[in-house]
Specification:
disordered C terminus, about 240 residues, four-stranded antiparallel β-sheet, 10 strands, alpha/beta
């Protein structure tokens, strides 16, 4: 069994009503330990719904989802939060940093919910900031950083939690091409160290950096293929 296993999965809004929407319509997917997979699709394809379910931010209407052998359907909010804290780190396009906290405290915050000791939180936060090359900004506030620097902080936060899965939602969407390439290079480096990386994107050029491409359209998986990452391809190029 893979790290992520979904079978005949549905997410239906207003089921049985005239305005019913099948955001996911009977999809199946398996992602193994250590994979770097891109889930790609245009707006309305179902990729955000897929991310929310895979990330334990939501539950399916019906169908099976197993995460590292743990059944996810019918879990309570508290149970989902506990699974997320142990299994998944998120990197969002909007960074999701807390303005009133310093950079290192933003990085350390998720470890509070994991029960990590304060001294260990600080050490791991600083190690993560060093890994993304931004230790000099440890005491700064997010507003004092550029967009690229804020995204590096978000990546450091994901690194510090030491989760087996990093789920990145449009991680380069708000960045210029050069900075976006740097962010994707960091993600590929984490993958090389054994982390499972799931990249959610609408951009074919970004998807081309992954080792597997899963394409969604109208709630269906229409393509699932291995990919040889093309380092020479421009960030916004088409496949």
């Amino acid at each position: 069994m893979g790290l992520i296993e979904i079978c005949d999965l549905y997410k239906i809004y207003a089921e049985g009503q005239e305005n019913e929407v099948r955001a996911l319509d009977g999809v199946g997917l398996s992602i193994d330990y250590g994979e770097f997979a891109a889930i790609v699709g245009s707006s309305g394809s179902g990729k955000s719904t897929m991310m929310n379910i895979l990330g334990c931010l939501d539950v399916p209407t019906r169908g099976e989802y197993m995460l590292d052998g743990i059944p996810i359907a019918h879990r309570t909010e508290r149970e989902l939060a506990d699974i997320r804290s142990r299994k998944i780190s998120f990197i969002f396009q909007g960074y999701n940093l807390i303005p009133s906290l310093s950079v290192w405290k933003n990085v350390a915050l998720p470890m509070t919910y994991q029960g990590v000791r304060p001294d260990e939180r600080y050490r791991r936060a600083m190690d993560a900031l060093e890994a993304v090359g931004i230790t000099a900004k440890a005491e700064s506030r997010p507003a004092q950083l550029s967009g690229g620097q804020q995204q590096r902080v978000a990546i450091a936060r994901a690194i510090a939690t030491a989760s087996p899965i990093i789920m990145a939602d449009e991680p380069a969407g708000a960045l210029d091409s050069k900075t976006g390439q740097q962010v994707l290079s960091i993600l590929r480096g984490l993958h090389a160290l054994g982390t499972t990386v799931i990249l959610i994107t609408h951009d074919n050029g970004i998807a081309a950096k992954a080792e597997r491409v899963v394409r969604l359209q109208d709630g269906h998986i229409i393509e699932d293929r291995p990919n040889v990452p093309d380092e020479g391809r421009a960030l916004n190029a088409n496949l």
